[in-house]
Specification:
The chain has about 240 residues and is mainly alpha-helical. It has two domains: about 60 residues, Ribosomal protein L11, N-terminal domain (2-Layer Sandwich); about 120 residues, Ribosomal protein L11/L12, C-terminal domain (Arc Repressor Mutant, subunit A). The strands form two sheets. It has a three-stranded antiparallel β-sheet with strand order 1-2-3, with helices on one face. Strands 4-5 form a two-stranded parallel sheet. Strand 2 and strand 3 form a beta hairpin. Helix 3 packs across helix 4, helix 4 packs across helix 5 and helix 5 packs antiparallel against helix 6. It is flat.
Length: about 240
Amino acid sequence: MIISLLVDGGAMTPGPAIAQKLGPLGIDIGKVISEVNKATASFKGIQVPVEINVDTSKKTFTIKVSTPPVAGLLKKELNLEKGAGDHKNSQVANIAIEQVISVAKAKLPEMLEKDLKAAVKTVVGSCVSLGILIESKPAKEVAIEVAEGIYDKEIKSGKTEVSPEKKKALDSFFKDYKSKQEAKLKKAEEEKAAAEAAAATTATATPAAEAKTTDAKAPAGKAPEAKKADAKAPAKKK
């Protein structure tokens, strides 16, 4: 019997879900967890797909570890906890094409893609959704460049090493980029807050203005009518 799990690399722990799946099979859950953690130790900090093949008659098991999803590999490569919440307006990192190729090579054996260039395109697509710049450019722009063959030389050679000089340049660019990005987002938030405050002020003032208008239109008292009625009343006989 094959049990499929998605575990935290090197940090699988016992719990109700694990006990529910493995308990009825009669195998040592503590031993399974220990073996899984050893097999996934290199993927610490990201979730890893694991298959546990259990021989219920012999009460033995084997473990098969798959590579994490592309997004997880990119986060590990860049030491990211999470991607951008709004990838259209926010970027969280700057990656080299060599690092993209490295992730593509690691994931290729399990991909539907037939060659490394196709795998690179998939990784670039994940960079778009996570909010990751590639070569100091928007990932969408790089996707077009990959399709046009701009990076064919690096892809064909399978280059995965980034020179210290290039890494320093990428980091320097992103530091400046992030500073400008934060200033832009702060300005947008301030403008939004100001607009909301203005709207709230207008909403508060409107009822008062409406009340004033209503009072101005209110009918006059009945005193003039009473006076008119008195004038029509017959005079008393002396």
